[in-house]
Design goal:
- It contains five helices and four strands; from the N terminus they run αααββββαα.
- The chain is α+β, with helices and mostly antiparallel strands.
- Strands 1-2-3-4 form a four-stranded antiparallel sheet, covered by helices on one side.
Length: about 170
């Protein structure tokens, strides 16, 4: 099937179906025999004619081409959604089957697992009955190591700046 020529056609089709449903005309047309109102309801649109099948609810666009008139069904979003729902339901069923047929977990442990976290640290130290946390301060050795690192980094930065300045002044 050929898709509709424009989104305007789709919107027109939806509007016609909504109006027909809201007014009750669709129900009346379905119950009427073919001889009274006819099976199809036609509505002019810029591209040709919009045809509503009052029995099935199918909407088609009809337009004149070189060989005569041709009608093409407007894509129905509901049928696409129903197809996707069916596909997903089938996939769920196959996955349930695989899960049921899959290996079972064996080696049940009779004893319960501990309820506490083994990686969790102990309670914070309580100082003199107050609920204060004690944070250990760095030792003098830790401070000396940090200062030594910062001094080396600073010296390297100054040396690098001096080398860059000499390179730039020598090239100019």
């Amino acid at each position: 099937m050929r898709p509709a020529k424009s989104s305007t056609t789709s919107w027109c089709a939806l509007a016609i179906v909504a109006v027909a449903t809201a007014s009750g005309g669709l129900v009346a047309a379905q119950s009427a025999p073919d001889g009274e109102n006819g099976r199809y309801s036609m509505t002019p649109i810029p591209e040709g004619v919009l045809r509503l099948d009052t029995r099935t609810g199918t909407v088609s666009t009809c337009s004149r081409n070189g060989a005569g008139w041709a009608c093409y069904a407007v894509p129905d979003e509901r049928s696409a959604l129903d197809a996707e729902i069916g596909r997903l339901q089938a996939e769920v069923e196959t996955l349930k089957g695989r899960l049921a047929a899959g290996p079972t977990v064996s080696g049940k442990i009779d004893e319960a697992l501990p309820k506490s976290d083994s990686l969790k640290k102990g309670e914070p130290k309580v100082a003199e009955g107050d609920r204060k946390l004690e944070i250990p301060l760095p030792s003098d050795q830790d401070l000396d190591r940090a200062m030594s690192f910062l001094e080396k980094a600073w010296r390297r930065l100054i040396d690098m700046a001096n080398r860059v300045q000499k390179d730039v002044s020598g090239k100019i």
